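User: Can you help me understand a structure? I only have the sequence.
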Amino acid sequence: QGYRRGSLLLSLEDAGSRMSRLGGGAVARGHVEPLADALAGYAAVTNDDVRRVAARIFDGDRATVLVGPV
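Assistant: Let's start by predicting it. Here is the structure, written out as tokens:
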């Protein structure tokens, strides 16, 4: 949580990063998420949330994917 929060706040110091955040939100979601909402969302993530998602991603069957000439 601390890393993500700090990263977001530091990115606001650069005009290009601010514009990228605003444009990305507008294109991907159709609206720009207020900064306070983003920070509240990060704070709401618990260790159990992370464990649950990691288990769903990594506990399934394994697959091998090849790209290009084999």
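Now, to help you interpret it: The mean pLDDT is 89. The radius of gyration is 17 Å. Let me know which part you'd like to focus on.
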